[in-house]
Amino acid sequence: MIRNAWYALGFSAELPTGALQGHQVAGLPIVAWRTEGGDVVALDARCAHKRFPLWDGRLLDGDRLECAYHGFCYDPTGRCVAIPALAERSQRIPTTARQRPFPIVEQDGLVWIWTGDPERGAKGGPPRTPEIAGTGWETLVTEPIEVAANYRLLIENLFDLRGRADRKMGS
Ligand code: FES
Asked: Which domains does the chain show, CATH number per domain?
């Protein structure tokens, strides 16, 4: 599994404000949403408490994500900011109660996520795709196509377009 890579999470228009989404990226369960301020947030979707999938939770005021199981609340950085059961025992939230945040870049009409080493991801951004948001191009959006194959075969096939075009032209 290739983790040190930028992956397209979706088109910007597919991430409206205030709606939780579940994704599987590079084998990782991801919960994502667009905050009230317009930023896209992506966290590890396995709740730090009992690993319940956070995409089944709900968003509260202030962009807090509440787990549907026992109510742990996380802020957009992944920090746990509330544990309902602690009100009766202690006010201390364990520092280990946090979700891994993933770097996100939104550009040219796409939302990109980095699933690997954060230091490596910060050095170079995702590829530019001006044709998606540019007015001089037309972009057709289709429904996802399910293919019973390893996704890397499809990526390798698409990388080969230039080579095929050159061979056809005899260069
Ligand atoms: S599993 Fe999420 S709060 Fe318990």
From this structure: 6-127 (2.102.10.10)
